[in-house]
Amino acid sequence: MRWFDATYPNLKGRIFAIPNGGHRHPAEAARLKLEGVRAGVPDLFLPVPAGGKHGLFIEMKREKGGRLSPEQKDWLTFLQAQGYEAQCCAGYFEAMSVVFAYLYTKE
After folding, report:
1. What backbone phi and psi angles, to 5 degrees, belong to 90?
2. Cβ of 35: how many Cβ atoms within 10 Å?
3. Model pTM?
4. How far is residue 97's CA from residue 104's CA, in Å, rounded to a whole number?
5. Phi then psi for 37, rounded to 5 degrees?
6. Fewer Cβ close by (within 10 Å): the C or N end of the chain?
7. Alpha carbon distances (Å) from 16 to 8, 12, 51, 57
8. Residue 95 near residue 58 (C-beta atoms within 8 A)
């Protein structure tokens, strides 16, 4: 997030995390599910249209060993069909590259 804000000051704060993962107490998980948290939704969203797309979703994975769940694959496919750019990125540098390429199409 710091890299994005420093690199794109005109869009500072416009990329945000969707905190739908992680391990939680069962009561907290149940409460979040009632609030609309959905399994598989990508980790980051940049609500800026570019290159004919409505915005950019990124699912973050570790550089080595990270795998998409069936729900994550389904969400990426669905979002792409709706006109969003939706990518899985293995690590920080791949995510930076995807953001840069996406926003470059905006210029």
Report:
1. -90, 90
2. 7
3. 0.89
4. 10
5. -65, 135
6. C
7. 14, 10, 20, 10
8. yes
